[in-house]
Write a structure and sequence with these properties.
- The structure is a homodimer.
- In chain A, 45% of the residues lie in helices and 9% in strands.
- Chain A is built from 6 helices and 4 strands; from the N terminus they run αααββαββαα.
- In chain A, the strands form 2 sheets. Chain A has a two-stranded antiparallel sheet. In chain A, strands 3-4 form a two-stranded antiparallel ribbon.
- The C terminus of chain A is likely disordered.
- At the A-B interface, α1, α5 and α6 of A face α1, α5 and α6 of B.
- Chain B binds a DNA duplex through α3.
DNA sequence: GCAATACCTAGTCCGTGGGTAGGATTACTT
DNA sequence: AAGTAATCCTACCCACGGACTAGGTATTGC
């Protein structure tokens, strides 16, 4: 697999929060329980989400987490990036501040394989940007419903 | 990074082979030297490529490796799959024999996140299938040439 | 004050990536 | 026949990160 459980669990937490439309925060404990995920581990992940400004927290009793923005304004690329770090298929491909793709292997003859990895990265980032959290909680096209 | 150096190095080896159009095999030693990669490690990778039927080998003196098929008939998805194993963004998403995508988490309520990962996988596999080895050695569009 | 929660730091365990080492086999060359 | 250049194969090693666990501190509601 190419993404770790950090992305998997983290996305599930976000989807869970998006499903609770009330502005009352949801405790991580309840999320961990209903999702069947280890609480202590989720704490790490949700911190990443918080530092990225994707969720807000309220401490103390009846505290918990809630989305920092409406679900349809949260691109999945942000979520995955917050959880996994920069999205790059291989190390030598990273995106510079201006958004263009850079090959880290500088002086060398430009890797003939650069074209491949840039395209792969492009397609990943594009699909991740096209989807928002809202698409997860109420899927846009449900045509591929599983047969019995 | 989402793919390991297995994919990176392996693709470079394939691109190297594609650049040597003669049917004389190329020794791994010379590839390792010109590409600046560790020979002993490449030996492992190239075995995967061989077992996948992507390269052919000739043993003994003046032996080496050559492409099993013309470069334009080798989809990069095959290469990456041979090197990295099944292409799946996360563990629960895998492709069944008939090509459809399956969520491993069976009885459970189908992960609401499935839609996300299937799309991501779909876009990766699609771009990887659209490109062939030939595209790497003589890129189709060379517009994004690096500035001095 | 007490309980429930978020927050923080540290540490553990284990698999895998990224190699090395060393030999066995095969085939060309002389 | 010997030597040598290569593939092939098995085994091993080490460091790093993923996937947690543990234990404490700070904050808030009741």
């Amino acid at each position: 697999m190419m993404f770790s459980t950090k992305a998997e669990y983290g996305v599930r937490v976000m989807a869970h929060l998006a499903g609770r439309p009330g502005d009352e925060p949801t405790s991580l404990g309840s999320i961990a329980e209903t999702e069947g995920l280890p609480l202590a581990y989720l704490e790490h992940l949700v911190q990443r989400l918080r530092r990225a400004g994707l969720v807000e927290s309220r401490r103390g009793a009846h505290g918990g987490y809630s989305l920092a923005r409406p679900a349809q304004e949260i691109a999945m690329a942000e979520v995955v990036r917050a959880l996994e770090g920069e999205i790059a298929p291989i190390e030598c491909i990273t995106s510079s501040p201006d958004g263009s793709l850079v090959c880290a292997r500088e002086g060398e003859s430009p890797c003939p394989t650069k074209l491949l990895w840039t395209r792969v990265q492009g397609s990943i980032v594009r699909t991740l940007n096209e989807m928002t959290l809202a698409d997860l909680v109420r899927p846009t096209t449900m045509k591929e419903k599983l047969p019995a």
